[in-house]
Amino acid sequence: MKDKPQNETAEKHTPFLPPKNTITLTINGVEHRLEVAPWTSLLDLLREHLDLTGTKKGCDHGQCGACTVLLNGKRINSCLTLAVMKDGSEVTTIEGLAKDGELHPVQQAFIDHDAFQCGYCTPGQICSTIGLVNEGKAKTLDDIRDLMSGNICRCGAYNNIVKVVQEALERSQAQ
Amino acid sequence: MRSFNYTRAEDVGNAVSQVAADKGAKFIAGGTNLLDLMKIQVMRPSRLVDITRLALDTIEETDDGGLRLGALVTNSDTAYHEQVEKRYPLLSHAILAGATAQLRNMATDGGNLLQRTRCYYFYDTDTPCNKREPGTGCSAIQGYNRDLAILGTSEHCIATHPSDMAVALAALEATVRVTGPNGERTIPLSEFHRLPGNTPHIDSNLGDDEIITAIDLPAKGFADHYTYIKLRDRASYAFALVSVAAALDMEGDTIKEARIALGGVAHKPWRKPEAEALLNGRQATRENFRKVAEAYIEGAKGYGDNDFKIELAKRAIVRALEQALEMEEKS
Where does the record place the FAD-binding PCMH-type domain (chain B) (predicted)? Predict the structure, then answer.
């Protein structure tokens, strides 16, 4: 061992280091400069790197909607999004919705309508509701059910969730 | 997910040269299908070339009165585009019948065409699959095949293409614009995807080093008589067992031109223009619709669990043509 040149030993024992890309993301109004490996999903970045654990990892395959966040105002599945690809974007998570100590009206409506049981899908349901209202395409109850089909609630609180969405749409139309 | 290198493409030429130079490279845009498959190691690219910054994100009118959908326009932006809703409502309805609002906000028009099959054995890396690993065999033919193909199958693969959008594009006779190392070319939508034959691992006729830049819609949009019927196990967010895009050009009670395309039944959106032609100049009656449905499905082969699709597809064609004619309820 002693005879071996120092650099060869060092080379042999160099662990695998993922390449890092530097990106800038504005998350809940705060600009972050971040170093990410290419395979880090936006979901993992939020939860593991920034401790924003309000966004949930359900299926990690874009099927359940628990990871729904707003990217530049549009609802997306953060589990099927590579953080590195969204360099320069604005992300809003459940943590960024309350303003000045007051819950976002959709957050408050989930409480008022008892629109959850275990609460695991709720952050995604709330972000999805806000996205749906921004899109302005839902006109009927059937539209609401169809356009919320990307958010699964295993407790089955759908009836009350639909009421929340309906109320949120009425509120946006009244404004 | 396995590790990979990540690079960004600056323009279409640069994107093509990056992928042409590296056999393990793949383009990534919406990522909704590719990342899903990478997580379970069904797809294992060693490099992802990010094309999301290319200027392919607009919808523009073409010189011949049609519409050009940039490859990077999202499925949502396409379905809700004023001109698409007004002139090509069949396309709008088909797109909105697929996936979820979140996925449609991410998925691009080019990527939609390049979706892989949802055959369960393709996803299950513990089972043989000729599409995933050529030469290992098809687990579906004698396995559970309820969702799988009845037309254009081979002894090597009975996978279906999962896209709803592509079915509407086939009926509308859209054209795919692609660029490769040797320049630009166009591929009619009906020739874009291929049948499995002996090489089911190849989904389309797009070269490995070619990129989709746009999808061109011809001027004729069939906005007066159209429907997209999607039959599935849930009312929303499920792949089609059978889907039908139907469009009619009417002159009084007489059909001038009929277009039909089927989804969920083959390795590609299924067209049979010679069967459609049976309706040209004919009265729009249930009897004539049924004749076309029989001709359309001729030669279909069930594999056990999916035998029901043969009659289902015929009835769906009749219902779709009736709905397109009456322009009542659309589903």
Answer: 1-222
Whether B265 and B150 have beta carbons less than 8 Å apart is answered as yes
For residue B74, is it left (φ>0), alpha (ψ between -120 and 50) or beta? Answer: beta
CATH superfamily of A105-174: [2Fe-2S]-binding domain (1.10.150.120)
Q: Indicate if the pLDDT at residue A124 is higher than 70.
A: yes
Under 8 Å CB pairs connecting chains A and B tally to: 84
Please give the average per-residue pLDDT across B132-145, as a whole number: 98
Phi (first) and psi of residue B232, to 5 degrees? -155, 175
Question: Per-residue pLDDT tens for B147-182?
Answer: 999 999 999 999 999 999 999 999 999 999 999 999
- Position B328 scores a pLDDT of 65
* Contact check, Cβ <8 Å, A146/B103: no
Judging by beta carbons within 10 Å of its beta carbon (0-12, 13-18, 19+), is residue B240 exposed, middle or buried?
A: buried
Q: What is chain B's mean pLDDT, rounded?
A: 97
| Residues in chain A within 8 Å Cβ distance of B100 | 65, 149-150
CA distance between the termini of chain B: 38
Q: Does B299 touch chain A (CB under 8 A)?
A: no
Pick from A37, A38, A128: CB nearest B102: A128
pTM of the model: 0.95
| Closest partner CB to B35 (pick from A68, A82, A132) | A82
CB B235 within 8 A of CB B160: no
Supply φ then ψ for residue A11, to 5 degrees: -65, -45
- Quote the minimal CA–CA distance from A103 to chain B in Å: 24
> Considering only CB atoms, which chain B residues are within 8 Å of A137?
80
List chain A domain ranges.
21-96, 105-174
Poorest-pLDDT segment among A107-111, A114-118, B324-328:
B324-328
Predicted confidence (pLDDT) per residue in A53-100, tens digit:
999 999 999 999 999 999 999 999 999 999 999 999 999 999 999 999
Tokens of B108: 């691009």
Quick one: which H or E segment has residue B208? none
Chain A residues near residue B234 by CB distance under 8 angstroms: 149
Minimum-distance CB partner of B106 among A77, A132, A149: A77
Fold entry, domain A21-96: Ubiquitin-like (UB roll) (3.10.20)
* Identity of the residue numbered B201: H
pLDDT of residue A18: 78
Average pLDDT, chain A: 93
Q: Compute the average pLDDT of residues A14-21.
A: 83
B123 interfacial to chain A (CB closer than 8 Å)? no
Residue B193 bridge partners (DSSP): B204
Q: Please, what are the domains in chain B?
A: 5-50 (3.30.43.10), 226-326 (3.30.390.50)
Contacts B2 to A, Cβ<8 Å: 39
